[in-house]
């Protein structure tokens, strides 16, 4: 609330001062009180092109434009020192009227022929313009995105660089518009320093798009459980860690926890404390949308059913297959013939002396591997219900409640919430919708015996305020997705992956044939 009061105060001061600036510049004073037209006059007397007015209606960019134009007030009235520009930038509530109503004269913008600017100044202008253009482009049209994990293989590969269309589902207006350019949530060269400020934020709003996420779309979204992260374990869900170690332990920055290094060794590392992030600054994830709002989803023995019908995995999708071997696979051969990376293969001798291998791959490739001379038998990994029922372990499967014995291969059925639709609430099904009601839609939720209280009032039903989606990775056994953390709210949706513009295999280099291919 306080930031908005400062913003309102700024506009009151500004528009109460423009008439005087216009009068000094030989323009009609009344023009200072006409919304829109006063901006055009202000641009003209500052020597700026008329089309800059478009930038004043772009959220996030408009704040920068007002700062630039505040500085131009000083310039046009002859106060051109660095000190004056700094004061106009950070204290416009005082500096704008002080400058405009001072006994000075309008001298106009610095003529182009007299702008003897050094190399630094020229570069500053170019960089400022580039930042504005790039910010508008990546916020409202397309943004680059990198595939960091194998959860979508072989549809999208580690090392793929994508363009994500914000236009497909409508550009989301920045919730935290004051941020360091070209960063997501952390300042460059730091681990946990935020690149944004939360004291000035905006409510969720989205511009019109070409539609909503559909089944089969490759969707980029903000990680729903990313509202809180452990500073030194940012690639893991805070909530799963909290179920394992307790919230108090994670809040202690000096407390150490086990971490596995890239070479497989386990070591202890301090947690580093907790970081809290708003929706648009949570980690970006990419998964396949397999069910939309209003659908009923179920997973039976690894097969996804939506509204009772089997929804086949993408042709490039993968499962983990378990092989019993006479001799271990040649990893270089698997890479050359089937593009299976060594980092994806787990193989060795088990405690009972058998040679075993676990490999994520497609059914077709698994059938070819079965024909190898060194293979005794093969079966697809399938976890039955109750697989995570050991009370000594914190169940990783949504809704992370001991009343539900689901696994990633046998899950549901579960109804996906839809805006305006009502679900009957009971103590038994509340775990499925608790986070949506309390976290994503901001209600206070309590359970007293058999009674459910929402915002202090007894409730036997709930009507949802937005649509939700169910996202899963095409690499079905190597994907942390909705089976582990639940629904994706519509306000977390970023855009649709549309184009692979560059790609590089971590082992073999550029994948030339994938350059500029459409995402399927």
Radius of gyration: 28 Å
Indicate the proportion of strand residues.
15-25%
Question: What is the overall pLDDT average?
Answer: 88
Number of helices: 13
Using the alpha-carbon principal axes, give the shape: elongated
Structural class, from secondary structure content? alpha+beta
Biggest beta sheet summary? 9 strands, antiparallel
Distance between the termini: 44 Å
Number of strands: 26
| Uncertain residue segments | none
> What's the helical proportion of residues?
25-40%
Structural summary, described in words:
The protein is of the alpha+beta class. Among the domains are: 2-116, no CATH class; 311-380, Alpha-Beta Plaits (2-Layer Sandwich). The chain is built from 13 helices and 26 strands. The chain has helices spanning 2-15, 18-24, 37-45, 61-76, 82-90, 92-100, 119-140, 238-245, 247-251, 331-338, 363-370, 430-440, 482-485, and strands at residues 142-146, 160-165, 218-222, 228-230, 256-260, 266-270, 274-276, 284-291, 296-300, 303-306, 309-311, 319-325, 346-349, 355-361, 375-380, 411-415, 422-424, 445-448, 451-454, 457-458, 461-463, 468-472, 488-489, 493-505, 509-510, 517-518. Strands 1, 2, 3, 8, 22, 23, 24, 25 and 26 form a nine-stranded antiparallel beta sheet that branches. A hairpin with a 2-residue loop joins strand 18 and strand 19 (451-454). The mean pLDDT is 88.
